[in-house]
């Protein structure tokens, strides 16, 4: 970029109008000179010798030499030489005029003095600018340099420095509304670096500091070099004070918390080098940092340098706004054949964006440890790869080939972490040392997709790479939401002799969805021991409220080598696994596997959750394809549902533990503990061996087992190994519509044990064992009904069978049965009936069928009956026998007072009768009403026994309004009801009961 273009950008960034004022301003620059301003007690002198401007004079206070100029610029091909005394410590140079300092030539000083150049108007270093000084260099557009409480040396308000200004400066004072920028484009030759290569750009002596402190700081194609020293970039665009700490050769800046910082940019292969045999640090303090076009910040220990006690300095980038790396690099590393410990990289920003193949990393290629990488930002985004696809955008720490030291740790603290389009966040070892730990603490973590060509997957990973000797680091994610989709992955892995790291996820919600766009890569959350590895894989632990795995995504632990696979543990409130990919290549799943050619055992899989849903071809399994054993699968869930198959019906939804074809190890056991287990629509729960190893046992403990619609629960052997046994303990078992509980074997074993008081088989469902191998006895079926029932429909072909196709049938034992309905034992299977069989290859090889009722102890709970029985006739009262003295009146209901205590007692007095209510008496009858006497005498006259007793069958109201019971009603005179009946229809025996039906009933 030309000087004029840079000024235009700067002025436009400040919002300053470009007109005649700018033309005059630019003209001042074009004729810039080194001109003393005459403001010091002892003024500066400038003399020209050839192309060298020799600067002498100035005012000395202790070890400080002060120069003051109206303008200060060094034209291309010329030199500005400070002819200072050798005992001067600091040369402080201010520009009090209105011109930018345009440095296109060489600035030189004598001795080891530090050089300060202060110009509030701006400082620009051209491509041929260079330094040849003995100490540190500070270029700043501050208004003044402060000396604590002793005073300041100001360019905006020139005055003679106090005689007390003999100490080191400690502050840079900015009081502009917007401070001017500093720009560097220097690529001038700068000698030989510590590695022996040519250096270019602005350079201070090794171990010294180089500080550019402006408003904005722009490095456009330029290089800054401070090998083993320190480079600081930053500035303010509002008033404030930047602290300056000088400790020997080490200069450090401290920025105020509430002032507005300037922006820092590096473009067009710009860079900062501080690598040496130790030390070497970089600090950037900015509002925004932008690095583009192959620009870099690089620290560490140079190749062939350092010692066991050497330590590289740190790279610290602190931005109040955004850090954007677009084809930019921040690296702190121990180089090949170097000794010593690498420095750290610390990133702090509101937003960190790393794209187009950019990376931030620490590494060791030598004997020392690599540094740590720490990122603290509100939002972190890593996007894409380099233009050629070879380099992903990345955050990483590593121990490289031939290194002996450990890699550093990587820590990310953020609200949002997005890793997309093939970018990566990783720790790795390729050497003898350990890989670093990777820790992410975020509100939201998203990993999405792959690179455009599919070669690079978006990833969080911690690994031990091929030919490494050390263990991989652990990967820990703590977040509210973890989303991994479209072929991205989160994994720990070992490719070599070291162990794989543990992977731990602690989240509110975890979602893994889909596969890559090219269909080749499933979305993964995994811990692996990969091909040719000898180390064990790490464990994978997920703790979450909700885990969703769908559309071919997978959560698994694997071994492909000699080491063991890690254990997979899921603790959640809800787990859902749904579907497979459209190309049938990947099924959504949770798994622990030992793959082909592996010799290590598979890991165990444990799930503890409230609800587990597996549907549409998804699976949960442990499996071995190799020499090692399959892992155990344990499910402790409130509710388990396995539903359906893939859309084409080829792949059922399953819970399974198996040893696959050509494997040598045993399959693991499968244990399910749940309140409800539903298996339907072709889904399955099983253990199986397809090879020489044994099949695992399947144990189900549930309150309710419902298997329906061609679904199955099974143990199976189709190889030489024995099938496992199947145990079901459930108060209720329902099999419906071709559902199966089965144990099929070609290698032996395969018994079924069922404990249930309530077993229903409907519509072609079955409980079967079937041995089809030569000389293989069929498995036994034992059902303990616990004094319960087995129910089937006779013509629905629901069977209980313990058959053998080639040898002896198994035994069927049903004990403690209270009743068997709709199914019966037979010697031969009868079509279209519900049967119990134990058929062998020939009738003499049939098994036994034994059905027993609960055992009864006759002496338990029985009561001995008395010998002398009571005569029941003597217990019947004769008081009401017709013809006796007591039988002298008809039955009378006395109203609310109720019945007398005994038929022999007299009726109650008139207080009882007074409880009667006479409804609607006619007014003419009120005067003739006869009072009821208080008591009634009981007659002792005998009633002739021959007088027949006729029971009352109705009642009438006489003319006086009295109610009388009568044997017959002479004529039915319906009356309207005295009270309006409630309109409340009542169901009685399935008939609607309403007012009309009530009227019919009463009539």
Automatic annotation (TrEMBL):
Chain segments carrying region Disordered: 385-410, 451-473, 974-1003
Among the Pfam families in the record, one is TPS
Keywords, A to Z?
A: Membrane, Transmembrane, Transmembrane helix
What spans are recorded as compositionally biased (Polar residues)?
Answer: 385-396, 458-468
Q: Which residues form the Filamentous haemagglutinin FhaB/tRNA nuclease CdiA-like TPS domain?
A: 37-148
Any transmembrane segments, and where?
7-27
User: Is Transferase among this UniProt entry's keywords?
Assistant: no
Name the domain of life this protein comes from. Bacteria
Establish whether keyword Transmembrane helix is in the entry: yes
* Record-linked NCBIfam families: adhes_NPXG
The identity of this protein, by name, is Filamentous hemagglutinin outer membrane protein
Q: Which organism is it from?
A: Nostoc commune NIES-4072
Q: Organism classification, top ranks?
A: Bacteria, Bacillati, Cyanobacteriota, Cyanophyceae, Nostocales
């Amino acid at each position: 970029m030309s000087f004029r273009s840079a000024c235009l950008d700067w002025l436009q960034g400040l919002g300053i109008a470009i007109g005649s004022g700018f033309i005059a301003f630019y003209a001042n620059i074009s004729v810039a000179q080194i001109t003393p301003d005459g403001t010091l007690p002892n003024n500066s002198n400038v003399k020209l010798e050839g192309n060298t401007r020799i600067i002498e004079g100035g005012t000395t206070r202790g070890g400080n030499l002060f120069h003051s100029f109206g303008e200060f610029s060094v034209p291309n091909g010329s030199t500005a030489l400070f002819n200072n005394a050798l005992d001067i410590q600091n040369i402080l140079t201010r520009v009090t005029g209105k011109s930018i300092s345009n440095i296109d030539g060489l600035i030189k000083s004598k001795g080891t003095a530090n050089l300060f150049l202060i110009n509030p108007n701006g400082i620009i270093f051209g491509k041929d600018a260079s330094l040849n000084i003995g100490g540190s260099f500070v270029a700043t557009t501050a208004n003044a340099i402060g000396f604590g409480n002793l005073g300041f040396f100001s360019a905006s308000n020139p005055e003679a420095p106090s005689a007390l200004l003999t100490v080191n400066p400690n502050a840079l004072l900015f009081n502009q509304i917007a401070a001017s920028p500093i720009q560097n484009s220097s690529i001038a030759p700068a000698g030989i670096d510590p590695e022996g290569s040519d250096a270019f750009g602005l350079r201070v002596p090794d171990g010294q500091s180089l500080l550019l402190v402006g408003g904005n700081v722009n490095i456009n194609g330029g290089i800054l070099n401070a090998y083993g020293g320190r480079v600081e970039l930053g500035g303010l665009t509002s008033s404030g004070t930047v602290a300056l700490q000088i400790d020997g050769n080490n200069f450090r800046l401290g920025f105020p918390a509430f002032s507005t910082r300037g922006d820092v940019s590096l473009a067009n292969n710009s860079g900062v080098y501080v690598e040496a045999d130790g030390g070497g640090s970089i600090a950037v303090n900015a509002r925004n940092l932008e690095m583009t076009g192959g620009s870099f910040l690089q620290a560490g220990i140079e190749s062939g340098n350092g010692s066991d006690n050497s330590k590289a300095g740190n790279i610290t980038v602190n931005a109040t706004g955004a850090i954007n790396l677009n084809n930019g690099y921040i690296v702190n590393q121990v180089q090949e054949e170097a000794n010593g410990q690498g420095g750290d990289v610390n990133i702090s920003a509101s937003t960190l964006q790393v794209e187009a193949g950019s990376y931030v990393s620490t590494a060791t290629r030598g004997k020392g440890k690599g540094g740590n990488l720490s990122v603290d930002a509100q939002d972190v985004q890593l996007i894409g790869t380099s233009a050629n696809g070879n380099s992903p955008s990345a955050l990483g720490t590593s121990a490289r080939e031939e290194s002996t030291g450990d890699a550093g740790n990587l820590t990310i603290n953020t609200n949002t972490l997005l890793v997309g389009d093939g970018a990566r966040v990783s720790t790795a070892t390729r050497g003898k040392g350990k890989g670093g730990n990777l820790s992410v603490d975020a509100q939201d973590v998203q990993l999405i997709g792959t690179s455009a060509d599919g070669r690079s997957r978006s990833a969080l990973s911690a690994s031990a790479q091929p030919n490494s000797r050390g263990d991989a680091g652990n990967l820990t994610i703590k977040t509210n939401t973890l989303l991994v989709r479209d072929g991205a992955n989160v994994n720990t892995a070992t490719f070599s002799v070291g162990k794989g790291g543990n992977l731990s996820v602690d989240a509110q919600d975890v979602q893994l969805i889909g596969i890559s766009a090219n269909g080749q890569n499933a979305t993964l959350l995994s811990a692996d021991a990969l091909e040719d590895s000898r180390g064990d894989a790490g464990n994978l632990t997920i703790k979450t409220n909700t885990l969703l795995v769908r559309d071919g995504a997978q959560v698994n632990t694997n071994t492909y080598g000699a080491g063991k696979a890690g254990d997979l543990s899921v603790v959640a409130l809800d787990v859902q696994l749904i579907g497979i990919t459209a190309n049938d290549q990947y099924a959504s799943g949770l798994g622990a596997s030992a793959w082909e050619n592996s010799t290590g055992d598979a890991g165990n899989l444990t799930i503890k959750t409230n609800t587990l849903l597996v549907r549409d071809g998804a699976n949960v399994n442990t499996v071995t394809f190799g020499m090692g054993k399959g892992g155990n699968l344990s499910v402790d869930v409130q509710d388990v549902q396995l539903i359906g198959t893939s859309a084409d019906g080829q792949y059922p939804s399953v819970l399974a533990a198996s040893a696959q074809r050509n494997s040598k190890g045993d399959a693991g056991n499968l244990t399910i503990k749940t309140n409800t287990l539903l298996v339907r629509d072709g889904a399955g729960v099983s253990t199986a061996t397809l090879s020489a190893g044994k099949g695992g046992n399947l144990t189900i403990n549930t309150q309710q087992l419902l298997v329906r619609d061609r679904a199955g629960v099974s143990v199976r052997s189709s190889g030489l190994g024995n099938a496992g046994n199947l145990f079901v303990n459930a108060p209720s078992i329902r099999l419906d519509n071709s559902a199966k509980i089965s144990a099929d074997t070609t290698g032996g074993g395969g018994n079924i044990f069922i404990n249930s008081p309530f077993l229903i088989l409907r519509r072609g469902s079955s409980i079967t064992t079937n041995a089809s191998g030569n000389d293989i006895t069929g498995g036994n079926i034992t059902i303990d009904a616990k004094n319960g029932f087995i129910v089937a429909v006779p013509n629905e072909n629901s069977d209980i069978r313990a058959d053998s196709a080639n040898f002896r049938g198994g035994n069927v034992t049903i004990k403690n049965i209270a009743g068997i309905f709709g199914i019966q034992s037979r010697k031969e299977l009868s079509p279209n009936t519900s049967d119990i069989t134990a058929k062998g290859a020939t009738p003499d090889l049939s098994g036994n069928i034994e059905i027993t009722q609960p055992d009864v102890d006759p002496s338990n709970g029985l009561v001995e009956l008395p010998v002398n029985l009571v005569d029941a006739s003597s217990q019947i009262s004769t008081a009401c026998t017709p013809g006796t003295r007591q039988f002298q009146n008809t039955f009378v209901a006395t109203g609310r007072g109720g019945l007398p205590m005994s038929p022999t007692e007299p009726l109650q007095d008139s207080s009882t009768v007074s409880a009667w209510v006479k409804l609607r008496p006619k007014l003419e009858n009120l005067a003739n009403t006869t009072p009821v006497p208080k008591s009634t005498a009981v007659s002792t006259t005998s009633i002739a026994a021959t007088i027949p007793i006729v029971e009352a069958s109705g009642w009438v109201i006489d003319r006086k309004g009295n109610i009388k019971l009568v044997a017959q009603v002479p004529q039915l005179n319906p009356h309207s009801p005295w009270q309006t009946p409630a309109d409340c229809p009542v169901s009685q025996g399935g008939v609607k009961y309403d007012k009309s039906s009530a009227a019919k009933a009463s009539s």
